Amino acid sequence: MHSLPTPTLSPMTTTTGTTLDLPFFRRFLDRATTVLVAHAAYLTDLDAAIGDADHGSNLKRGFGSAAQAVADAGPTTPGALLTTVGVHLTNTVGGASGPLYGTVFRRMGKILGEDAEVAPETLGRALAAAVASVRRLGDSAPGDATMVDALQPATDAYITALGERRDTAAALKAAAEAARTGAEATIPLQARRGRASYLGERSIGHQDPGATSTALLITALYEATDPALCAVAPEPPVEERPAAEEKSAPGRVGVVLVSHSREVAAATAALAEALYGGGDPAPAVPAGGRTDGGVGTSAELIRRAIGEADEGAGVVLVCDMGSAVLTAKGLTGDGVRIADTPFVEGAVAAVVTASAGGDLAAVLAAAEDARTYRKVTG
C-alpha cells in the first residue's frame, strides 16, 4: 500500500525565526523538485489506477526543468520566483496538472507581490488565494477527491496555527501534516471531478494522485525551513533573450483545435478547412496529444498553436473534453477565448465564420451556436 513520506528536518536544525525571503523560496523549489522527481513513479502508479498514468512523469518534466526557467528569468523577489515557476509549469506540464499547479504558483506569486521578505500572514493569504483559484478553475470542492482535499486543509491549518501565535515553522509543519492527512483521506472518496470521475464508484479505494503531489509540495514548503536539508546549488549565468518580433497588421481570427489525440485534432482541422470551400481558410491549427506523441494534452503544444494561429484578431480554442479544457483555460486572455461547443461541429462553424472575416465575438457565437444542432428530429 502506498504511503506518503513523513515530513523531516535535520536533527540539529533549529527553525525558530524562519525568514520567508528569496533564499527560503529557492530552497522550497529545490526541495519540491527533488521530492517530486524522486516520487514520479509513485505518483504515476497512483494515476494509472484511476487516470491517464502520466501525473508523475508530467510533474517530473515540469519541475525538473523549472530551475533553468528560473535561471533564465532571474527573479529577485519571492513573488517573482513563484510567478516564473507558475508560468513555466503552465507551459510545460501536460494534462490538467499544468494549469492547476501553474495557477497555484502564479496566484501565490501575485499575492506575495514585490516584497523582498514575506510576512507569515501574507503567505497565508497567498495559500488561500491559490486554493480559491484552483477550486474555481477545476470547479472542485473538498470531498471531490482532487488536489483541493490536500491544499484546503493545509491552508486552513497554517492560518489557524498562525492565529494561535505559533511560529512560521510550526505553522508550516501543521500545514504539511494536514495535507498528508487530506491526501490519504481521498482513498474512501468517490471522485467527482477530473479523469477519475469517469470511473464512478470504481474510483473509491484509490488515493488521488493530485492530492498526493500537493501533500509532497506542502511538505517541501515546510522542509524549506531547514537550510541543511535544502541546500541551493549555484545559479548558471543568465543569458539574454532575443527581442520578440513585432506582429504584422491584424488579419483574421485564428482557430486552435485542442484534442487528446494528435490525429483527431489534425483531421478535424482539415475537415473544417475543406468544408469552408473558399480556397483561403482562416488559420485552423491542430494541438493534439502530448509532446511525446502520446494521448493527452500539452500546454506547450497549445501555446505554440496559438502563436501560429494568431494573426492579431484573436484566437478561439475549440476543445474536446476533460483536461483539454483545463489546460486551455490556463492559456486564455489577451484575445484568446475558449468556445463552449461540440468539438467537430464547433470547429467547422468557427473556421467557416473566421474565414468569412468574422470578428472574435462572431466566431465565438457561431461556434457556440453549434450546441443547438439537432441530429434527431420529432
UniProtKB/TrEMBL annotation:
It comes from the Bacteria. Residues 252-378 form the PTS EIIA type-4 domain. Residues 23-223 form the DhaL domain. The keyword Oxidoreductase does not apply. InterPro entries: DhaK_L_YcgS, DhaL_dom, DhaL_dom_sf, Dihydroxyacetone_Kinase, PTS_EIIA_man-typ, PTS_EIIA_man-typ_sf. SUPFAM superfamilies: DhaL-like, PTS system fructose IIA component-like. This is Dihydroxyacetone kinase subunit L. It holds the Pfam family EIIA-man. The keyword Kinase applies. Gene3D superfamilies: 1.25.40.340, Phosphotransferase system, mannose-type IIA component (3.40.50.510). Keywords: Kinase, Transferase. SMART domains: Dak2 (SM01120).
